Amino acid sequence: MSDSWSTALGEAIREWRVRELGAQKLASECLSVHQSALSRWESGQCSPDLVAMWRAGARVDALLTRAAQIEKASLATEAIRSLAQKLHDRPDLLARVQEILEQAARAPSADDTHRREETK
After folding, report:
1. Reported pTM
2. Pairwise CA distance, residues 17 & 23, whole Å
3. N or C end of the chain: which has fewer CB within 10 A?
4. Buried residues in 21-60 as b, exposed as e (16+ CB within 10 A)
5. Running DSSP on this structure, what letter comes out for residue 32?
6. CA–CA gap between residue 46 and residue 24 (Å, rounded)
7. Distance (Å, rounded) from C-alpha 95 to C-alpha 36?
8. What domains, with CATH codes, occur in the chain?
9. Mind giving me the DSSP string for 53-116?
10. What's the DSSP call for residue 35?
11. How confident is the model at residue 107 (pLDDT cuts 50, 70, 90)?
């Protein structure tokens, strides 16, 4: 697993644990794993036991979907930071990028367009 995927999956697991099971100690008991193992899963240090999580009521597909969303957002944020660093010395280009982003923010998303078509 890539570092960004491990981190994203760990964050998704932590979100699920907090929402569904609460404290890490209780969650580790429900998952039949040591608390340190759960901690390593949540920090992205090692791969989780998805079967144990499924047995404890986790929707593994939802966890993986959420992890993908987190990773995508993280990669986008990193790309934006990198671009900002490169544009630091080019205010003319920075202004153009801001203009493009503002136009994109105002444009309807593909999901919005699809929903409008479904309601017709």
Report:
1. 0.58
2. 8
3. C
4. beebeebbebbebeeebbbbbbebeeebbeebbeebebee
5. T
6. 16
7. 48
8. 3-88 (1.10.260.40)
9. HHHTT--HHHHHHHHHHHHHHHHHHHHHHHHHHHHTT-HHHHHHHHHHHHHHHHSPPHHHHHHH
10. H
11. confident
